[in-house]
Amino acid sequence: MKIQESGENYLETILILQKRNGIARSVDIANELNFSRASVSRAMSLLKASGYIEIGNINQIILTETGKEIAEKIYEKHCILKDFLTTIGVDKDIAAEDACKMEHIISDQTFNCLKDTLNKLKNSN
């Protein structure tokens, strides 16, 4: 089952919050994304029903293996795209914004070629 862009964004945000704070809760996700708690609660229900997250005993959001794989893949794309864009001269804030949009639509082949190109650019310096 293909996950929607919004679902990918939620999973990526959960991963980022876990890395930053050690835990992700619905309130943290709402604050991070500037969404209402009700919207986040609805999304968490859908992600849980799809098997991407679980809710822990202190109401923390826990990524399942499948959810974590998706989150890590999206986060890697975001980081590489942002890095590539800043390397070619794009302002860091614009690069971060553009990477957020691009990470969901770029094909694996294009992403891998872009990643290889970035590595070659960095290794040539």
Q: How many individual β-strands?
A: 2
**Cα distance, first to last residue?**
42 Å
Q: How many domains comprise the coordinates? A: 2
Q: Mind telling me which CATH architecture of the largest domain this is?
A: Orthogonal Bundle
Task: Give the full name of the CATH homologous superfamily of the largest domain.
Answer: Winged helix-like DNA-binding domain superfamily/Winged helix DNA-binding domain
Summarize the structure.
The chain is mostly helical and 125 residues long. It has helices at 5-21, 26-33, 37-49, 65-87, 92-102, 108-123, and strands at 53-55, 61-63.
Description:
Helix 2 (26-33) packs across helix 3 (37-49). The chain folds into two domains: 5-69, Winged helix-like DNA-binding domain superfamily/Winged helix DNA-binding domain (Arc Repressor Mutant, subunit A, Orthogonal Bundle), CATH 1.10.10.10; 73-123, Diphtheria Toxin Repressor, domain 2 (Orthogonal Bundle). The protein is elongated and about 50 Å long. It is mainly alpha-helical and 125 residues long. The mean pLDDT is 94. 70% of the residues lie in helices and 5% in strands.
